[in-house]
Amino acid sequence: MNMKYLIVIFLSTVCFNSLQSQNYDWKSKVAPKVFEQFEQVPNVEYMVQLNGKADLSIAKTFSTKYEKTSYVYNVLRGFAANSQRDIINYCKQKHLKYKSFYIVNAILIKSGFEQMKALAQRNDVKFIEADPSVRQDVLKRDYTIENRSPDNLEWGIDMINADDVWNMGYTGDGVVVGGQDTGYRWTHEALKSKYRGWDGSVADHNYNWHDAIDSIDSHNSGTNPCGLSIKVPCDDNGHGTHTMGTMVGSSGSNDIGVAPDAKWIGCRNMERGYGKPSTYIECFEWFLSPTDTNEMNADPSMAPDVVNNSWYCPASEGCDNSNYSTMEDAVNNLRDAGVVVVVSAGNSGPNCSTINTPPNFFSSSFDVGATNSSDTIANFSSRGPTAGYGSSILKPNIAAPGVDVRSSTYNNDSSYGVKSGTSMAGPHVAGAVALLISAFPSFKGNPDTIEHVLQNSAVYLDTDQSCGGVDGTETPNNTYGYGRLDILAAINYVNSLPLKIISFEAEKISGGKIRLYWDIRDENGKVLEVQKSKNGINWEMVSGFEFIDKGTVYDLNPFEGVNYYRLKIVSEDGLNTYSEVRSVEYMAKVKILTYPTIINNNDNLNLEINNEKGNVVELNVFNSEGIKIFNKSIFISFDKQMVIIPIRETVFASGLYYLRFSDSSNSMYVTKKIIISD
Question: What range does the domain containing 37 cover?
Fold first, then answer.
């Protein structure tokens, strides 16, 4: 189904105030780290959180990913524009460097202390948080480059049975994976043909690459080997090239990627291994609606289906409760837009509750622990339950190969090496998401369904370690989550579900009805709903009925205009599946053209009636006092029918008259007025 852009008009409830003094509490609105930075330098970069969040709850009701991303993008952009207008004007007046975000309601600002203080005193400012440098999630001590001959099949690919899925014909075709990392050597032999910006002869980096790094990080010195704010993909560290190879890479006998026919796009969020919350948020925002290389002309239709995140932000480097919520908003909003957010669980194991940094302790992140070739948890893999933010929850969600993983490196266009870490496990899951979507295209844009399938098909693994009161023999547990990823089992799991949609159609028939019919496979018989919508956003049941193997239902009261329909099924284990959306245009009201509208009582009244063929339209004429003086039944033989009413043969005095046209049930009507002159 093709839907036009949804244009959302917002009436902001945020009250904008001038710089109103709140000296009694302004310091409590500033993170201690910001004060510490001002003690060292006169100008500091910080993030200003504004009050209020956009409500994205409707996004889940959309059927397609494009509808979700378009809706979320428009809502967030509109909300941010209204909420941030006054502060942006203030920054312009004071000539302050700033960057506005919309995926979170925040503005990155660099200023002196007095300007920061003035902002903190505003009623529309919620909090001022630090923007610290944070390091990538990688075990540097386990990193080696090997010159060994390529394996026919890497052990991780074999362990999750990706090669068996390839043999079924599912290789990731039609799916786009995204990665935010240290950058990517896009010309690497295992990656170049998979890059969405390469058509086989010419590279186009618009909408396929973004660089969030515009300055040298304080932990580093000298110049960046790739440069800053670059418009062509480059990797200044090697971490990103390795992770992307595991997601999609392949070249000759180097079967390193889980989804070799998926396409990839990328965003650099780290400067030689160090990034900031603002650079991560900038990449999240770009993935929601990628732009051209000039950071213009955002297009949500270019958003990826899954994004891999192999990084973390420890408290030791400045991430704390003051800035957790902003990063969580970015993850939540991208996920609401239909994008699966895969996150490495971290390398702080083996103790319990070592999943304790953003973004891995957010409930909306799909966390991945690391296993070795013996199919046991890696000693370094962080364990749950989460700690340090919000409610303690069970994590990770799932585990995947992450020890001695061989993939592409950034040394040259044909170099390969091994790395270990949950950074290597996450890409296996991101690639598996691509395979699952290629097998079941209706899953695109539905993170809940995708994560449900991957979790409930995972290989059961137990441990003698108990964390958070959960025994290691239970599933899920805080060591392996639901178990180790198995993409073949995931596809077999979906195929074995008792309820599966084979076809669903909708058509307009005579009598003002729309016929909806379907064919589904059912082994046990579960819940089924036929849903309708007038805008593709809000859905309601057409009617309730008992499940049957092949069904038909009639919508007796369609909306005027375009009607959207979909079939919803709920399996025994609670998995929701939707059919493709069908649309039918229905002319519910009578469409009438009258001419002339001022007529002489010796002339004819000419009517052009547009309505469903086979219907009967009732014409009633009322005088200016509301008294009915004329009636005629008109059978519609053609969708556009001409009717002539001879005024001279009827008893009409001069004056104003109302013509009311309705269907036979008098439930749909339209009124026209005419003036009869002498």
Answer: 26-131
